[in-house]
Amino acid sequence: MEPPLLDENEQNLFANPAADPRKMRRIIAEDPEWSLATVPRLIDICVKHIVNNFADNPLLDELKPKHKEKVLEALATDLPLKITAPLVSDEGYWKRCCKSRWSVCDTDQYGDSWKRMFFERNMEDLIENFVPESTELSEITETLELSKDFIMRLRIRQLLPQIKDVSSGVAQEDEISDQGSDTGTDDSLDHFDFGMIINKLPNLVELSITYGVRNCGMNFEWSLFEFTQKDCSLLARAVKSCTHLQILRLQRCLIEDEKARLIISHLLDHPGLRVLDLSHNRIGDKTGRAVGKLLSVNKILEEVNLCDNNIQAEGASAIAFSLKKNSTLKTLNLKLNRIGDEGGRNICQALMKTTTLLHIDLSSNGLGEHVAANLAEVLSHNQSLEHIIISCNKLGVAGGRVLQEGLENNRVLQTFDLRLTEISQQSEHSIMNVIKSNKEKDSNSVSA
């Protein structure tokens, strides 16, 4: 008897029994969403492993560029600096680190470098929150060793004072008063000592410090804003030893003449200082004389800012005397002082002889019509001054006419601020036309 004939499907099942769904093995995954399509690639598994174990086994330079990029994109921003600082140079990683810590980030002020921004702002935060005798110095020293090659500027907006110990009674107060000659007044509070770090920053070119406490609220005390004698001595020695420092700013520190003169005395032979900013303090004529001596001795200083102080005619005259012989200063700011007509006349006499000064600000100094006449003579002879600010002085209508006449032959002045000087609108209009003409000629010469 012949075997029954099989159709094509039955023949295939007979030839391949595994194709029969009734005889196939069925695998039921524990995860109902599991499928072969979701299995990650081996390279992705390796990258994830490297990222998860980066703190214990940092592996980066050995990777290929495309794999290295994947690792850097996935690295956590809170890894210890001792691991990332010497190993990671990728700007994308440091950009993520900056944005994870600070809401406002502008690399224009940091040479377009995210890594520099992170290390400078991180060090600033450590210093601003350092409390003498309370905060461990080890964190700053460890971070300093990792950050020193990337820090070019430090802008310290606050310095916390040492915490007073009020539980030790009268005996301790007597002991403090006995040591007053060494540490300042009885209630003086010491702050962070920059001598501990400044010489360990080989690329530091700018140091800006404000001695005070931000957001103190109802806990306000004048002692929180005191720049003590000990602070002054330590800072002066630190700045003198930092020969590569170019810019020093001590703003809103309540600095008085004695302390300002001590700082300036340590800067007389400084080989690198180009900018000195002592604005918004309490300095007077004695500091004016000290600045005059600095201008006579220092051969590279380019900018001095003494805005908002108490310098009067004597101090301004000392500065003017040195300005006649100085050949490097380009900017002088005496705004918001009280130099008066006498000081203004002496400054104008100095401007007749200087050939390097480009910018001067004499606004809000109690100048009158007599100074306008001296300044008009400067405008007709000086061929270097490009920017003059003399606003908020009572020059009067007659003073305006004199300035207008003095400016007729001037071809270099680019800015002349005469707001709130009580000159006539006609004089102001004529002066502004001359300034506009000078700017157009300057722009044409540059384009040519």
Order of strands, main sheet, comes to 1-2-3-4-5-6-7-8-9
* Low-pLDDT residue spans: 168-188
Tally of separate helices: 17
| End-to-end C-alpha gap | 113 Å
Reading the helices and strands in chain order gives: HHHHHHHEHHEHEHEHEHEHEHEHEH
The Cα radius of gyration reads 35 Å
What's the average pLDDT? 88
Outline: elongated
**Structural class, from secondary structure content?**
alpha/beta
What share of residues is helical?
40-55%
What fraction of residues sit in β-strands? 5-15%
In total, how many beta strands?
9
Biggest sheet character: 9 strands, parallel
Overview of this protein structure:
With 448 residues, the protein is α/β, with parallel strands linked by helices. Helix content is 42%, strand content 7%. It has a 9-stranded parallel β-sheet. Strand 3, helix 11 (257-265) and strand 4 (275-277) form a beta-alpha-beta unit. Helix 2 (42-52) packs across helix 3 (65-74) and helix 5 runs parallel beside helix 6. It is elongated and about 130 Å long. 30% of the residues are buried.
